[in-house]
Give the backbone structure.
Amino acid sequence: MRFNKLRLAGFKSFCEATDFTIEPGLTGIVGPNGCGKSNLVEALRWVMGENSYKNMRASGMEDVIFSGSGNRPARNMAEVGLVLDNADRLAPAAFNDAETIEVTRRIEREAGSTYRVNGREVRARDVQLLFADASTGARSPALVRQGQIGEIIAAKPQARRLILEEAAGVSGLHSRRHEAELRLKGAEENLVRLEDVLAQIDQQIESLKRQARQATRYKGLAAEIRRYQALALHISWRDEEQRFIDAQHRLDADMRDVAERTADQAETARLQAIAAAALPPLREEEARAGAGLHRLILAREALDGEERRARDRAAELERRVAQLAQDAARETALIEDAVASLERLGQEDAALFEEQGASEAARASAAARLSEAEQVLSAAEVRLNDAQAALADLNARRNALAAALAEETRRLARFEGEWTAIAAERDRLNVEASGLSASAEDMAELEALNARLAAAEAQSLAAEAVHAEARESEALTRGPLNEAERHAQRLETETRTLMKLLGSDSGGLWPPVVESLSVEKGYEAALGAALGDDLDASTNTSAPAHWTSLDGDFDPPGLPPGVESLASLVKAPPALQRRLSQIGIVLRGEGRALLPLMKIGQRLVSKEGDLWRWDGFVSAAEAPTPAARRLAEKNRLGDLMREAEAARQ
Ligand code: ATP
């Protein structure tokens, strides 16, 4: 083996790439101590596969990398290449395809060494064998270092054998034999493992044969199962298909039913909407009916009172009828007497007529007497009527006097009782006083007391008179009082009914803004026409439709000249102020003329509910909207409450 060139880069003191050419013949290296001569030999051994860092005079294999000097930084890797001459083609077959063989070893910090032969990466062992075959290598005794000759002479026979074997060119055979022994051992171990594997494979084959038999049986059974499953599925499919057809029929019937019910529902909804629309007037009617009912109850009570009075009056009249019957009986008796007289006169007249001798004078006289008797009779009847009327008055007065007499009798009895008690008390006092010697002062005091008593009695009498007068006055005023109470009750009932009606329709969770509105009386229809359905929206911002208060200044465009804003007549939440400021109130006949003068967003309304909008939309007054009716009811409620309060007072 012939070395042509040694190439170093970053190895020990050789920081820069350095080619060390080895020419034929002897090559000597001369230099001072420490210049790096030994480093070259170490590079040679290192590239031939030295794996002991101690033999490299280092504390670790990475110490062979240039570690820096005073003016150069350390390197991260070192590489040594050795170019061999292979012109004779004596290299091992694996590397024998070129004229030269370049063996390189490269080491990087923390990455270890890599070997390449002609650029192809190889194992360290391959490189060591390459040099061993040529009877050289990193540990070759041919590489003699200082003092090594003496070591060889003094070496043991075993160590000398290495030198001799190398000289005989058989050191490579030892390495190869060792390598072959290692490989043989590895092959034997592989054979043992292979036998184990074969035994395992035999077991697996048996197991697989069993599994194959089971699989075959399974496939047969599975095919049979699939066939039966298919059969069962086919049967159930036919059942399901039949059921599907039945269900389809039922679905069609249901669809028809649903369509009919939907139509019914729509019709019902329509009727419900109509009924709902008719509901507020009915409620109003109900309220009115309730108020009317109450009035009727009051009227019935009044009629009951009148009935009682009429009964009393009837009883009175019956008494009078009885009286009149007696009078009539008396008068009948008188009439019978008169009739008897008339008969007698008739008989006389007949006698006179029969006698024919009676003179015309006598007949005239009889006629005169007859007419006289008739006049007497009519006068008696007139007197009887007068007497009956007078009797009725007298009876009434007698009854009143009897009642007054009974009352006075009771009072008299009470006074007499009191008088008796006072007299007894006086007697007792007199008896007590007789045992006492009355002093002049006591007498004076007694007189004073008597005077006070007399004054008190006079006062009592006066008070009684006043009391009687007051009772009379009370009796006189009780009638108007009852009338006023009935009026107040009627108003209160109507107020309660209206409050109930308004309270039941106040909107629940999101009360409409109309609940918080009040408008001057008479302008309800105007406000209802101006705001329309917007009055049903709430001021609650969580409602789907609601009014929101907008911040910031608002400079409203002015209404047509001379038109008053509806805002001045309405008390409303701030959210409505912008809208109200743009609504004007005008007379019925003025709206159309002012139409062209309106600005965007403005509208005019009349008290009656006509509407003119800025964009030309005109709506004539019609029946008041529910909101307008509600506002009117609220105003009516306020009036009723005031009237009821006044009536109660
Ligand atoms: P001598 O004649 O005394 O044997 P020599 O010429 O053989 O000396 P070497 O022993 O080969 O010299 O070289 C030693 C030099 O190599 C020293 O100066 C040492 O600093 C330098 N050296 C050794 N290892 C490294 C390294 N890893 N990086 C840089 N320089 C190194």
